[in-house]
Amino acid sequence: MNTKASKFNFGKVVEVMGNIANNRYLTAVRNGMSVIIPVTIIGSVFIIMLNLPIDAWKEFIAPYADNLKIPMNFTMDFMSVYVCIGIASSLCEEYKLDKVSTSVLAVLAFLIAAITPGTIDPEIAEKAGLTVSGTVLPMGNFGAGGLFTAIIISIFTVEVVRFCVKRNLVIKMPHGVPTSVINSFAALIPGAIVIVTAWIIKVGLNFDINSALQWVFSPIRYFAGDNLLSVIVPILLITIVWIFGIHGMIIATPILYPFWYENLNANINAAAAGTAIPHFMTEQFFQWFIWIGGAGATLSLAFLMAFFGKSEFCKKMGKFTLIPGIFNINEPLIFGVPIVMNPFFAIPFIAAPVVMGIITYLAMGVFHLVNYPIAIAPWTLPAPIGAMMATGLDWRAAVLAMVNIVIAGLIYLPFFKAFDKNMVEKEIAAKRQDEAALEEGQQVTIQVK
Questions:
Q1: Of 62, 279, 300, 399, which residue is the least packed, with the fewest Cβ within 10 Å?
Q2: Tens digit of pLDDT for each residue in 172-206?
Q3: CA 172, 177, 181 angle in degrees (round to 5)?
Q4: What pTM value is reported for the model?
């Protein structure tokens, strides 16, 4: 009776987590956030160029430093705009709505809600030595500081458009008019609703949406701060969800990524200004020192299977998944072994990243043996290379990444041995069963003859 109840409860947990993972809004946020990956990587290249640890290079690049900061300003410092477009487009695809016109409306609503224009008097600008005057737009909320607003506004905009289309509250054009024109006019009524709503909230009610959202999510900020709890809690959240077969980043992306990117944005600006780097807690902290080979630090497990496996299954699975694991792709391993709901690997899948996180926290945050992340490197790079690039070519980051790989391997080792032994026994039993079946078949054939 108790066994049935526990099985029932386990099934309900999996069902609930699956529903959360498949939620259209979480999926749209994850897809929308992925839009900024190439943009931020490009901006990071210029940051690395500005911060190469070579004195001769620094002297050479100094006259061009301001110009090299321009790509950074329009990549990292405008990420909320790009995320707004990405989320709106992804959700529009779910609803079969026009992505272009709706994304434009989402960006417009975001600008009204999050950006407050200012004015610089020409005389004051001249006295202060500024090169600009007149109307200016503060940069703060264009970057990571406006991500929560971008997420909420883009979803709100798409839902308004969907509501109007579903209830036929759109301006229709006659047949023969180009599709782009039809979509533009169809966006007029929902566009007016979205823009007026954003304007009333911002101006009429004098309500700062961006500040309010920052306040609402401020308790979560502690778990994205430069402390040990901020290391352990995200690791537990992501790995435990993965054990149930749910992609952990679906949960983490809308909750933690805005804070992680805000920290990285501050690091990049500090690096560009030549001041002390303030934060180690960024997404790159996890990517290059903890998620080595993918969630669960499974590169070490693939290595153990490929080179130390005694069962045919482990040997083949290790050789098949090792190369993808080097480039941080571990879905073949997670679903092929599988690690999902596997009692042999549930503990090391969680424990290895936790231990790696603590070691990285001590090396980077306490003893300052490794530089803080100042750039985004392509996530498909091998960990030591990506770690170096993310920390401004600090060779010690590569060493730390390799140390963590070894530590993960030691944690996985006893569990791998138990799993491998179990697979050997199954293969021997299967082989004996096949031999018995073959022998029985041969005896039947002799009797028939």
A1: 62
A2: 888 777 887 888 888 899 999 999 999 999 999 99
A3: 70
A4: 0.76
